Amino acid sequence: xxxxxxxxxxxxxxxxxxxxxxxxxxxxxxxxxxxxxxxxxxxxxxxxxxxxxxxxxxxxxxxxxxxxxxxxxxxxxxxxxxxxxxxxxxxxxxxxxxxxxxxxxxxxxxxxxxxxxxxxxxxxxxxxxxxxxxxxxxxxxxxxxxxxxxxxxxxxxxxx
Length: 160
Hints:
This protein is 25% helix and 40% strand. The radius of gyration is 15 Å and the shape is globular. A hairpin with a 1-residue loop joins strand 4 and strand 5 (69-81). It has an 8-stranded antiparallel β-sheet with strand order 1-2-8-7-6-5-4-3. It has helices spanning 23-30, 36-39, 132-159; strands at 3-6, 12-19, 45-48, 60-67, 69-81, 85-92, 103-112, 115-123. It contains 3 helices and 8 strands, in the order E-E-H-H-E-E-E-E-E-E-H. It is an alpha+beta fold.
């Protein structure tokens, strides 16, 4: 199925795709941080620092990342509705937590005939005031392309 770009509000970018799989299968993949490197369309997620476990609201999990150089993030699950919605806020480690931190990655799953519409949203409305505008200016188009690739990877995994 093809991907579509959803209208974006100030500070958000969304892409969506219908995947021919039930929401439970997709949600199980999203709720396991050990599997995030498999689905990351941008190639920046290297591995989970938290071990494989099913996420729930309020959970914190770490990620080893690489974008030119290696770094780590701490993520906190800020939205959770079983098989329908999961979102985490990415927080940078000190001293970068004062400057580059606070973006939210959200996945919304809606059952449709024959499958699930998956919408991924990159939400920078809570990004640090110091980086908010630069992040949007420099990363929006690349992030949109990477999210489209992420949904392609999710599709490949859950329909294999």
